[in-house]
Write a structure and sequence with these properties.
Blueprint: H1 3-16, E1 20-26, E2 36-41, H2 45-60, E3 68-70, E4 77-81, E5 85-90, H3 92-98, H4 100-103, E6 108-112, H5 121-124
Parallel strand pairs: 2-5
Antiparallel strand pairs: 1-2, 1-6, 3-4, 4-5
C-alpha cells in the first residue's frame, strides 16, 4: 500500500475515534525519514489509547503493522510509525509545545475537517 493511500486510511480511523484538529503533512521531497506525518489532538490518555489501538487493529486486518509505537505510557504524545506514514497523537499542551507544523514548515499541509467521513488526500490538497 502506497503512503498516500495508507495516510488516507489512517485519517479515517483517527476520525472514527474522534481525533480532532487533524493535519496531514506531505514530507515527500523534504526528508527521507517518511512520506507523511498525520497529526491529531486528543482530550485524554484514554482517547489516545483508543485511537492507537483502533488504527493498529484496523490495519492489522490487512497485515499492515506498525514498525514502532512509543509514548503509550503517558499518552501526552503517542507516535505510531508505519515507515511511510508516521502518526502523532497529541494532547493539546504537548502539541502546542512541540509545534511540529512549524518545525516542518516546508511541508505541504492538508487540513482535515473533524466531520469528514473520508479524507481523500487528493481532494484536500492545496
Amino acid at each position: 500500500m502506497k503512503g498516500q493511500e495508507l495516510a488516507d486510511r489512517i485519517v479515517r480511523y483517527v476520525l472514527d475515534r474522534k481525533g480532532r484538529d487533524i493535519t496531514i503533512m506531505d514530507l515527500r521531497g523534504i526528508t527521507s525519514i517518511t512520506d507523511y506525518f498525520i497529526i491529531c489532538t486528543v482530550e485524554s490518555s484514554a482517547q489516545a489509547k483508543a485511537i492507537t489501538e483502533h488504527v493498529a487493529e484496523q490495519l492489522d486486518r490487512d497485515q499492515i503493522r506498525p514498525w514502532h509505537i512509543e509514548g503509550t505510557q503517558a499518552s501526552q504524545w503517542v507516535l505510531i510509525d508505519f515507515v511511510d506514514v508516521v502518526v502523532h497523537i497529541f494532547q493539546p499542551e504537548t502539541r502546542a509545545f512541540y509545534n511540529l507544523e512549524k518545525l516542518w514548515g516546508d511541508a505541504k499541509f492538508i487540513d482535515v475537517k473533524d466531520s469528514d467521513e473520508t479524507s481523500d488526500l487528493r481532494a484536500h490538497s492545496s
